[in-house]
Amino acid sequence: MSEKYESKTLLFLIIGIWVFCICVTPPVLLICKDRLRGELGLVAGALIATAMVINMNATVQRAIHMEEHQSAFCAWSAVGRLLVVAALFVLFGITGWLNIVTMLVGIFGLKISAYAQPLFIKFFQKNKL
What are the distances in angstroms from CA 84 to CA 13, 37, 49, 54? Predict the structure, then answer.
């Protein structure tokens, strides 16, 4: 794969995360009792998802150039990402600074963005953007 394709993929994933965050903001503001914590949770989740996708890209780039043990490196990197996310959930759950349910919704933006990736590519190729 070319680097141009990989950078477009990373960019489209990040755009998808934030488009999802923007689309989910009105329901979050309507449903949450404490709107500030709800919105902070959503934005924190989107930031975490963005950091995760950047880290995944760096992991894959590094694994491509390794001579051996690529699968173990990728697996341990995934475990590290999950531990960091779990630690953030515990931290924010204990402190109560933000709504951890909306944080989970923000992190789900990565999953939605990954599924919407072919649609983004088709749209941008059709419109030559």
Answer: 20, 21, 12, 14
Report how far residue 32's alpha carbon sits from residue 52's, in angstroms, rounded to the nearest whole number. Answer: 26
How far is 126 from 105, CA to CA, in rounded Å? 30
The model's pLDDT over 41-61, given as tens digits with 9 standing for 90+, comes to: 999 999 999 999 999 999 988
SS3 letters across the chain = CCHHHHHHHHHHHHHHHHHHHHHHHHHHHHHCCCHHHHHHHHHHHHHHHHHHHHHHHHHHHHHHCCCCCHHHHHHHHHHHHHHHHHHHHHHHHHHCCCCHHHHHHHHHHHHHHHHHHHHHHHHHHHCCC
Residue 126: band (very low, low, confident or very high) from pLDDT cuts 50, 70, 90: confident
Question: What single letter denotes the amino acid at residue 8?
Answer: K
User: Token pair for residue 36?
Assistant: 């500030």
CA-based nearest residue to 16, from 127, 118, 125: 118
